Amino acid sequence: MVNTAKINAPGLRPTQELVLDTALHLFSERGYFNTSVHDIAREAQVSIGSIYHHFKDKQGIAQALYEQLVARMGRAFDTIASTHPTTHDRCRAVVELLFQLTEDEPALMAYMLHAQHQEFMPGQAPVCSSRPFTQMRAMVAAGMDTGEIRPMDSLVAATALFGGPLRMISLRLDKILEIPLQRYTAQVWEAAWHAVAA
Amino acid sequence: MVNTAKINAPGLRPTQELVLDTALHLFSERGYFNTSVHDIAREAQVSIGSIYHHFKDKQGIAQALYEQLVARMGRAFDTIASTHPTTHDRCRAVVELLFQLTEDEPALMAYMLHAQHQEFMPGQAPVCSSRPFTQMRAMVAAGMDTGEIRPMDSLVAATALFGGPLRMISLRLDKILEIPLQRYTAQVWEAAWHAVAA
DNA sequence: TTGACTAGAACGATTGTTCGTTCTAGTATC
DNA sequence: GATACTAGAACGAACAATCGTTCTAGTCAA
User: Fold this and answer.
1) Average per-residue pLDDT in chain A?
2) Is the backbone of residue A31 left (phi > 0), alpha (psi -120 to 50) or beta?
3) Between the CA of B197 and the C1' of C24, what is the distance in angstroms?
């Protein structure tokens, strides 16, 4: 087993975590195909052998990363759903969380939203059908049942509500927006809610 | 021997066009990095040498394709702007055009919206700052001047108005939506316009 | 000793690109 | 009309470099 002291030692994190972290940053900066396994090894200061001991192949790194991030975001959305009673507040909290994540961990957000996962993970369902996105659509559907949201196709409602905020995130990740997203939260949310409010 | 009729003969288009067309479809199906120049040559039934005679390198193909599509879309938006007096009608026409393009030429749309151009065309500005997107933002800004659109940050207004429709396009390209986009035009537009209408 | 882990040289396959050549069509010369 | 010449287009074998992966050797804790 891995010595537990090692885990807590500053700068000496378990290889697996180190590799995933390095891969995330390289993938989201240069893209999956512009990042070689050798690059990851060099950057993480880990040997090729080590990497292949922990991961089946290069795709396995991307897959593990993806699943980890999706799970993490799913959990965050669960928390939001259970701490906010109304659809309005839930969805607003989701937008706030996404904005904050974009500012705090842009690499994570870029890998989740901008990467074309199907290109390097064949067979993988598109992000839009991953759990976090499903959760978002479920929130909207629930809001239509309670009457908070105007009756319409629930998929249309979900894209109408989150489409704007998500595009703001894209603009920020592409560095077209130079100001932190949080400054826009109020305006963005007001417009988004107007789109679907009853 | 072969005369000029060759150019007009069905199925025998000039090499350059043939290569670009083949590249567009391969790029948008498998992605740029999963498509080798050999693949393009094989699929287009053209020799490697021919390709390199017409294009500087692989990136040159992607670049030519990109510029061609951006220019085409820019022209279409120009036409829309000059044939519709109000911002409301202009923007709605834009959404209708985008929906129609997505149905008629999904490869084109996928290459414009989903491809991560910066990964294979380093230095290229992100799509969001290409002319078509600039035109869309200009329409919105104009609408705010005339009072059709509620006063707010014009970038926020643009993302609020077009964010929903663009996400619908993404869902359709990812085949999560199985029904033609046109069926949703009315609902999508109503919600989008509500987001920003004065 | 065993088993988990690390190391990094080496390998085979693929890729983007080059280059010498052939082919085609048009033009000038006789 | 026949011939010689030229420019552009097309061809595809060959090349160098890179990449993902494997393999063998070694380390260290239990």
Assistant:
1) 91
2) left
3) 62
**How far apart are the C-alpha atoms of B184 and B165, rounded to whole Å?**
10
- Asked if pLDDT for residue A3 goes beyond 90, the answer is no
Cβ contacts (< 8 Å) between B161 and chain A: which residues?
164
**Euclidean distance between CA atoms A106 and A124, whole angstroms:** 23
User: How far is Cα A106 from Cα A109, in angstroms, rounded to an integer?
Assistant: 5
Q: Which 8-state DSSP code applies to residue B125?
A: P
Q: How far is CA B152 from CA B78, B155, B196, in A?
A: 25, 8, 9
Round to a whole number and report the distance in Å from the CA of B193 to the C1' of D7: 58
Q: Is any atom of nucleic acid chain D found less than 7 Å from the CB of residue B53?
A: yes
Is residue B83 classed exposed, middle or buried when 0-12, 13-18 and 19+ CB atoms within 10 A define those classes? exposed
**What is the reported pLDDT for B13?**
65
Token pair belonging to B118: 């910066």
The model's pTM is: 0.91
